[in-house]
Amino acid sequence: MDTQGNKAAHVLVSEIKVAAARLQTSVLDRAIQVYGAKGLTPDTPLSYLWTWGRALRFIDGPDEVHLRGIARHELKKAKARHEG
């Protein structure tokens, strides 16, 4: 934010939100798979973590909203390079 301003930081934050949420879901999916049926029981925190992790993907807008903002930003950059 100090060097590029809030607009650039907003795009980077959106990228991080999408990547982190997807990675969290992927890691927990794999952990549940490794544990088998036990991964879905209260004996492990995996189902709880997966549920809240999945919910967090919607709290600040779904991935599609963030991806649309990222795409818009990238298209503007490409257009500026092409015209300039």
From TrEMBL:
Taxonomy, superkingdom: Bacteria
Domain Acyl-CoA dehydrogenase/oxidase C-terminal stretches: 10-73
GO molecular-function terms, A-Z: acyl-CoA dehydrogenase activity
Record-level GO cellular component terms: cytoplasm
SUPFAM superfamilies membership: Acyl-CoA dehydrogenase C-terminal domain-like
GO annotation (BP), single: fatty acid beta-oxidation using acyl-CoA dehydrogenase
Presence of keyword Membrane: no
Keywords, in A-Z order: Flavoprotein, Oxidoreductase
Name of the molecule in the record: Acyl-CoA dehydrogenase/oxidase C-terminal domain-containing protein
Organism this protein belongs to: Falsigemmobacter intermedius
Lineage, highest ranks first: Bacteria, Pseudomonadati, Pseudomonadota, Alphaproteobacteria, Rhodobacterales
